[in-house]
Structures are given as structure tokens and as C-alpha cells.
Amino acid sequence: MIELSDMIRELRHQLTGAVEDGAGEAVRFELGPVEVEATVAVTREAGADTKVRLWVVDAGANGKYAHAQTQRITVTLNPKVVPADGSAPRTVLITGGEVDGER
Fold first, then answer.
1. Closest C-alpha to 61, from 79, 46, 40
2. Backbone dihedral region of 77: left (phi > 0), alpha (psi from -120 to 50 degrees) or beta?
3. What are phi and psi of 99, to 5 degrees?
4. Is residue 4 within 8 Å of residue 51, measured between CB atoms?
5. What pTM was estimated for this model as a whole?
6. Which residue in 35, 36, 68, 34 sits closest to 54, CA to CA?
7. Is 50 helix (H, G, I), strand (E, B) or coil?
8. What is the chain's percent helix, strand, coil content, to nearest 5?
9. Residue of 41, 28, 26 whose CA lies nearest to 72
């Protein structure tokens, strides 16, 4: 099992790779909302710093987590590029530079 945060981190890594791989390509794609649907097991760790964690589970693994509550969730992410110069975040384009007249 992996934590939901790890899954989102890997998604970010994969999208960043797609942006870099598209550099210099003539055809570009604007990245719109990304929907992630997963079944998660909700667990709570006891102790001084109690934490609730969301673990992504396999479709066939629900029986293993009978002691944990499982939920089906959908997370909608709206990716933005944050420029290093501190200017406003902008829409992600999966490829190279802008072409005249392109949105």
C-alpha cells in the first residue's frame, strides 16, 4: 500500500516529465483538471502525535483492510506552473514554447 500523498507526488513527477519530454514539439496540449479516483483505507495512529492516514488500496485488497474503514474518493487537481521569478502561476502546457496566436 502507498499513501495518497505519495501517489499524488508520483503523479506530479510524471506530469513534470511529460512537460519536459514535449519541449520543442510543434503540437502542444494544455493540461486541464486532473481527476484521480482511488479507494483508500483510513487509519488512525495512536500516540502523542495522532495521525489519520489515507492509504491507496488495490481493488481486490479490500478484504485485507476489514479493520480499517475504506472510502472511494475523487480528487480533482488543477495543475499550474509556478515560475522561478515569482510571477503569477500559469496553465501547464505539455510541450515547448508558445506559438503566435496560440492560447
1. 40
2. beta
3. -100, 140
4. no
5. 0.66
6. 68
7. coil
8. 25, 35, 40
9. 41
C-alpha cell, 59 = 481493488
Identity at 95, one-letter amino acid code: T
Phi/psi region, residue 24 (left: phi>0; alpha: psi -120 to 50; beta: rest), is left
**Residue indicated by cell numbers 522561478:** 84
Helices (H), 1-103: 4-21
Residue range 10-52, pLDDT digits in tens: 999 998 888 888 877 788 788 889 999 988 888 887 777 778 8
Q: If phi over 0 gives left and psi between -120 and 50 gives alpha, with beta otherwise, what is residue 67?
A: alpha
Q: How far apart are the first and last CA of the chain?
A: 40
- How many residues are recorded in the chain? 103
Answer whether 23's CB lies under 8 Å from 96's CB: yes
Read off the amino acid at residue 73: I
Q: H or E stretch including 34?
A: strand 34-45
